[in-house]
From TrEMBL:
Pfam families: FBA_1
Start and end residues of each F-box associated beta-propeller type domain: 50-243
Name recorded for this polypeptide: F-box associated beta-propeller type 1 domain-containing protein
InterPro entries in the cross-refs: F-box-assoc_dom_typ1 (IPR006527), F-box-assoc_interact_dom (IPR017451), SCF_F-box_component (IPR050796)
Lineage top rank: taxon: Eukaryota
Length: 309
């Protein structure tokens, strides 16, 4: 197994196919997955430390487009986040970048790339009062979503931030107190944007899914869809593909690195090619000489107690 490699994993058969990404990063370089949409994969990569670029690649056609990274042009900046997805009813895609020029800034610097015009559009001051935006993002139906944080080290989730590509506008949905656990991820579940909140304690592993819905007045709210717990599996993160639960099993002593997705030792996202649902897995270990095996399994066998609220 390579220390920094890319795999496509069939979600049904769990067959793994090693994919050669279209760029060479060398011993001083690195890459990460920004997002996946309509079979295209957006990467952020660097061949020489901080000389970063973006690249959109279709592994089926082997076509790719390299895009300048606005974060590289800003010099020193803080909390860079990205989003990637296709515009509804179109073959055009958009890349979103946000950051703060200074850690104490009250505003966010926003940039959006449009594939049709091959141009970045910039907005200097937006989102007043937003302290920090988490890098984990979801793109669904022409809208990008992130989690905002507050408190000490910005560890307390505050809201789900939404950007509409069509309206070119932002909106926020407050995260209920009951949805604040230890770790939070955004994902798509049952064709909806969902918040996965999970934690482990002396009683075992607890997780809940909250769907982003609309109330009777058309206001967006987070509503709990289901909650489950297990005493047998405690320190493994959970991600979703379609309506099935997937468990990432890591038998190494460094399993806590996988519990906290901020370490980015692993990226798992949905990938659809010719109607086949697959997973796109990126493996990058802190100590390349000792990579640890990871397997992907359906957790329906383990979490038989999952129930609607």
């Amino acid at each position: 197994m390579d220390s920094d490699s890319l795999y496509i994993v069939n979600a049904a058969s769990r067959e793994e196919v090693n994919v050669q990404h279209p760029f060479g990063v060398g011993i001083h370089g690195w890459f990460r997955i920004v997002g996946v949409s309509n079979g295209n994969i957006c990467f952020k990569f660097s061949r020489e430390r901080d000389d970063t670029r973006l690249l959109v690649w279709n592994p089926t056609t082997q076509c790719s487009r390299e895009i300048s990274d606005p974060h590289r042009d800003y010099g020193r900046s803080f909390f860079p986040v990205y989003g990637f997805g296709h515009v509804p009813n179109s073959d055009a895609y958009t890349v979103i970048h946000m950051c703060k020029r200074d850690i104490a800034d009250a505003y966010v610097f926003f940039s959006r790339y449009c594939s049709r015009r091959s141009t970045w559009f910039h907005c200097v001051d937006c989102l007043p009062g937003v302290e920090k935006i988490d890098p984990n993002s979801v793109f669904n139906n022409g809208q990008a979503y992130w989690i905002t944080g507050t408190g000490d080290s910005y560890a307390t989730p505050k809201s789900v931030l939404c950007y509409s590509v069509e309206d070119e506008s932002f909106s926020e949905v407050s995260i209920p107190v009951g949805a604040i656990y230890t770790i939070h991820n955004l994902l798509t579940h049952k064709e909806k944007v969902a918040l996965l909140a999970h934690t482990h304690n002396e009683f075992g592993y607890v997780a809940a899914i909250w769907h982003l819905n609309e109330d009777a007045n058309g206001n967006r709210i987070l509503e709990q869809y289901c909650r489950f717990a297990s005493r047998s599996i405690r320190e493994n993160p959970i991600l979703f593909v379609d309506d099935n639960l997937l468990l990432l099993v890591n038998n190494s002593k460094e399993r806590e690195l996988l519990v906290n997705y901020r370490y980015r030792e692993l990226v798992l996202t949905e990938y659809i090619e010719h109607g086949t649902r697959n997973l796109l897995v990126r493996r990058a270990w802190r100590y390349p000489e000792t990579p640890h095996p990871i397997t992907v399994r359906s957790t329906l066998k383990y979490f038989a107690g999952m129930f609607p609220v």
